[in-house]
Amino acid sequence: MSPSEIRALRKRVDLNQTDFGEVLGVAQMTVSDWENGATRPSQTHLAAMYQWRERLDEMGSKEKEVDWTRKLLRSATQAGILAVLLRIFGGSR
């Protein structure tokens, strides 16, 4: 996933870099580095972002995309990254 694709995913779901990082279990500066091409995401983070984008593509509406992402953010805040990854990869929609 290119830096511009990462930025586009984040903007698609109306998250700032801090919240996007929270969902993925990384710091805001890490998201900034990814978006600027200074560093590349790990394979785990790349897989999560590809899955995230795939799920969004299946939803069919911006409102559903943003709502689902806000639920991911709440999960990340409440239970940590493991819960988020389980939601992304586990099929909960």
Helix coverage percent of residues?
over 70%
**H/E element sequence:** HHHHHH
Low-pLDDT stretches = none
The termini sit apart by: 23 Å
- The overall number of domains is 1
How would you classify the helix and strand content by structural class?
A: mainly alpha
Q: What gyration radius follows from the Cα positions, in whole Å?
A: 12 Å
Proportion of residues in extended strands: under 5%
Mean pLDDT: 84
Assembly level: single chain
Quick one: how many beta strands? 0
Shape: globular
How many helices? The count is: 6
Describe the largest sheet: none
Top keywords for this entry?
globular, 93 residues, mainly alpha, 6 helices, 0% strand
Question: What do you see in this structure?
Answer:
This protein has helices spanning about 5-10, 15-25, 30-35, 45-60, 60-80, 80-90. The protein has one domain (about 5-90). The model has no long low-confidence stretch (mean pLDDT about 85). By secondary structure, the protein is an all-alpha fold.
Briefly, what is this?
It is built from 6 helices and no strands. The longest helix is centred in the C-terminal third of the chain and has 18 residues.
Question: What is the fold's blueprint, element by element?
Answer:
Blueprint: H1 3-12, H2 17-24, H3 28-36, H4 43-59, H5 62-79, H6 81-90
Helix pairs in contact: 1-3, 2-3, 2-5, 5-6
